[in-house]
Specification:
Blueprint (H helix, E strand, L loop, with lengths): L2 E2 L8 E2 L1 H4 L8 H18 L1 H11 L10 H6 L10 H16 L8 H21 L2 H19 L2 H12 L9 H25 L5 E3 L2 E3 L6 E3 L7 H17 L5 H31 L2 H5 L1 H31 L22 H7 L4 H20 L9 H5 L6 E3 L2 E7 L4 H7 L4 E9 L5 E13 L9 H7 L3 E13 L3 E11 L4 E9 L2 E3 L2 H13 L6 E9 L5 H23 L3
Antiparallel strand pairs: 1-2, 3-4, 4-5, 6-7, 7-8, 8-9, 9-14, 10-11, 11-12, 12-13, 12-14
C-alpha cells in the first residue's frame, strides 16, 4: 500500500513505511542530549566568528566607562541589524516546523559532501584569519546538516532562513573601508548636483561641500555615505521579498530594487542636509537634523518598498495581466496526516548518521579552537630595531630619529610586538627637532598576519577622513626596481599624507588580499611566511600633497633596501 506524499517535486509517490521509518521509540533525554551536543560543537567551532561579529555589530562594546545603551550605539557600525538576523531566522524556522509539511527523507551522501567542503572552508578561513569566509562556511554547514538529518525537501523549506544568516556576517574591514571611500565620494557628488537643481548653489572638493564665498563647509563622512543603509536595506529587502505576495521572478526583482531604494533614499537625505545647512548652518545639519534624518531614511525606504510592490500589482492589472496575490506557505501547509512531524524531525538526529556527524563536528571544533588560539609572534627585538637605521640621508638631507612606543592596547589589537615606529626629523639651527617630521613605521610578523591590516581602518577609526586614495609605483628602488605602493590623503583632526606597501615573504604588494594569501600559501609550502606593513606618514602642515608625495617616495626608496637586508633574515 502506498500513499501520495510531498517530496521535492510535491507529486512523487513514496511508501508510507519509508516516510514513517523514523518513528522508532527513542528516549527523549537522548534526543535532547544529541541536539545539545550538536549546538555546543557548532558554537565552539565558530566561536571566533561569533566573537568578531559581535565586536563588529557593537564596536564600543568593550570600551570602559560606558553604560549598556552607549556600548550598543557608540562607534561606527554597519551591522547594527546583526542581532535581529538570527532571531528572524529562528522565528521563520519555528513557524515552518509548526505549520508547514516537512518530510524526513535524509540525503546523507549529498549532505556529507556539502558539510565536508564547508568544514574545509572554515579551516582554511581559520588558518588565514579571514572570518568572513567562516560565515559562508557556517551557512554551508547548516545546509549539510539539514540534508543529512532531514533531506532535500527540508532544505527547500529552510533555505531562506539559512541563507538569510549571510546578512549578519560583516564584510571584511578592508572591503568596508574601500566601499566607504567610493560611496561617500558618490554621495557628495549626487548631493551637490541635486542641491544645485533645487537652487542651493554649492560645490564640492572630494567629500567636502562648500557654499561660494561663505565659510560654510559640510563633510560627507562615512556615516552619511549610504553604506549602512544599503547593507540594512538589503537584509530588509530580502525578507520583504520572501514574505511579499509576489511570486517567481517578481520577488527577485523586488529584492534587487532594494539597492536602488537605498541609494535614492540616501541621496534625498544628503540633499536635505545640504538644504538645512544652506538655510541655517552646518551645526544644525550635522546635529539634530542629521540624527533625525538617519531614522527617517529607513521609514522612507520601507515605504518605497511597499509602494513598489503595490505598483507591480497595479501595472499588471492595467496591462491586462493581473497577478494573483500568494500568501506565505501557500501549498505547503501541514494536514491531519502530518501529525507527529515535530517528533520525527527531533528524533532524526538520533541515528548512526547523527553520531557520525557529532564526532566530525567535535573533532573540527577542537581543531578550530586550536587554530584560533591567541598567537603572539616570535619576537626578535634586534630584528625590528635594526630594520631601519637611526639616521637616514634622503635626497641629500640627513635625518635623525627617535622611536615611538605603541600602547599596550595597540599591541594587543595587532597581536604582535614586532613593530618599529620611528620618527625622522631635521634639526633646526638650535639643534632641536624641526617641525617637519616623517614617521616611518613597520609592523612585522614572522608567524601572524593579524597586525598587517590596511591603514585605512586605523585612520578612520581615529577620526580622520580619507579624501583621496590611489595606487602608486615607487620606481628605481636600489636592488628592487619598482615597489607597488598605495597612497592616502586624510583630513579631519590632522591632515596626513600616507604611503604604504605590504611585504609578503620576499615580495612587495599594494594589495592587502594578495599579501594575506601569499603569506598563507608560503606557510603551507614551508617557505618564508613573514609579512609586514610598511608605512610612511607625513603631516600636511606646511606642504601640499604633491610635496608630501615626493618626500614620502624618497623615504620609501631609501628605506626598502634596508628592509630587504634586515627583515629577510628570518
Amino acid at each position: 500500500m502506498v500513499e501520495t506524499v510531498e517530496t521535492q517535486s510535491d507529486t512523487a509517490v513514496v511508501p508510507a513505511t519509508e516516510r514513517l521509518g523514523a518513528d522508532k521509540p527513542r528516549p527523549a533525554w537522548l534526543t535532547l542530549a544529541m541536539w545539545l551536543a550538536v549546538v555546543v560543537c557548532l558554537h565552539q567551532m565558530f566561536a571566533t566568528l561569533f566573537v568578531e561579529m559581535w565586536a563588529r555589530w557593537f564596536p564600543a562594546w568593550n570600551t570602559p566607562g560606558l553604560d549598556l545603551y552607549d556600548r550598543m550605539v557608540e562607534g561606527e557600525s554597519y551591522y547594527t541589524h546583526g542581532p535581529l538576523v538570527p532571531l528572524v531566522s529562528l522565528v521563520i524556522v519555528g513557524l515552518m516546523i509548526r505549520h508547514v509539511r516537512i518530510l524526513v527523507k535524509p540525503m546523507p551522501v549529498t549532505g556529507s559532501l556539502i558539510l565536508g567542503v564547508s568544514l574545509l572552508l572554515h579551516l582554511a578561513s581559520s588558518l588565514s584569519r579571514i572570518t568572513f569566509f567562516s560565515g559562508i562556511a557556517f551557512v554551508g554547514v547548516l545546509c549539510g546538516l539539514v540534508l543529512i538529518f532531514w533531506g532535500g525537501l527540508a532544505l527547500r523549506r529552510f533555505w531562506f532562513p539559512i541563507v538569510f544568516l549571510f546578512f549578519m556576517v560583516p564584510l571584511p574591514g578592508f572591503t568596508i573601508a574601500d566601499l566607504n571611500f567610493h560611496l561617500k565620494m558618490a554621495a557628495a557628488a549626487i548631493g551637490v548636483e541635486l542641491a544645485n537643481l533645487f537652487g542651493v548653489i554649492c560645490a564640492r572638493s572630494g567629500n567636502e561641500v562648500f557654499w561660494g564665498d561663505s565659510d560654510k563647509k559640510l563633510v560627507v563622512a562615512n556615516v552619511c555615505n549610504g553604506l549602512r543603509t544599503l547593507i540594512s536595506l538589503l537584509a530588509f529587502g530580502a525578507l520583504y521579498a520572501y514574505i511579499c505576495k509576489l511570486r517567481g521572478a517578481w520577488r527577485v526583482g523586488l529584492f534587487a530594487m532594494s539597492i536602488g531604494v537605498a541609494l535614492v533614499a540616501n541621496s534625498l537625505r544628503i540633499l536635505a542636509l545640504l538644504v538645512v545647512a544652506d538655510i541655517w548652518d552646518e551645526e544644525a545639519a550635522t546635529g539634530w537634523f542629521h540624527d533625525t534624518s538617519g531614522i527617517l531614511i529607513f521609514v522612507l525606504a520601507f515605504l518605497m518598498m511597499f509602494g513598489i510592490e503595490k505598483a507591480v500589482f497595479g501595472i499588471r492589472e492595467l496591462v491586462g495581466r493581473p497577478a494573483k496575490p500568494a500568501d506565505l506557505f501557500t501549498g505547503q501547509l501541514r494536514t491531519s496526516e502530518d501529525e507527529g512531524q515535530v517528533s520525527r524531525l527531533a528524533r532524526a538526529v538520533v541515528s548512526r548518521r547523527g553520531v557520525a556527524c557529532l564526532v566530525v563536528l567535535a573533532l573540527m571544533a577542537g581543531g578550530a579552537m586550536w587554530i584560533n588560539r591567541q598567537v603572539y609572534t616570535t619576537y626578535d627585538e634586534n630584528m625590528t630595531k635594526n630594520a631601519l637605521p637611526a639616521t637616514l640621508t634622503v635626497e641629500g638631507v640627513e635625518y635623525d630619529s627617535y622611536d615611538i612606543e605603541l600602547s599596550v592596547l595597540e599591541q594587543v589589537i595587532l597581536e604582535t610586538k614586532d613593530y618599529l615606529c620611528r620618527r625622522y626629523f631635521v634639526k633646526n639651527d638650535s639643534g632641536l627637532a624641526g617641525t617637519r617630521t616623517v614617521d616611518f613605521s613597520i609592523v612585522f610578523s614572522q608567524d601572524n598576519r593579524r597586525g598587517t591590516h590596511p591603514p585605512d581602518l586605523c585612520l578612520e577609526g581615529g577620526g580622520l577622513n580619507i579624501i583621496h586614495k590611489q595606487n602608486l609605483i615607487v620606481s628605481n628602488v636600489p636592488g628592487r626596481g619598482d615597489v607597488p605602493c598605495r597612497e592616502l590623503v586624510t583630513s579631519g583632526l590632522d591632515s596626513l599624507y600616507v604611503l604604504y606597501t605590504y611585504k609578503c615573504g620576499h615580495e612587495y604588494t599594494n594589495s592587502f588580499w594578495k599579501q594575506q594569501w601569499v603569506i598563507w600559501f608560503n606557510g603551507l609550502l614551508d617557505r618564508n611566511a613573514s609579512g609586514a606593513l610598511i608605512r610612511v606618514v607625513i603631516p600636511l602642515r606646511d606642504m601640499d600633497a604633491d610635496q608630501a608625495r615626493q618626500q614620502a617616495v624618497a623615504f620609501m626608496r631609501e628605506g626598502v633596501p634596508h628592509l630587504d637586508r634586515n627583515l629577510d633574515k628570518n
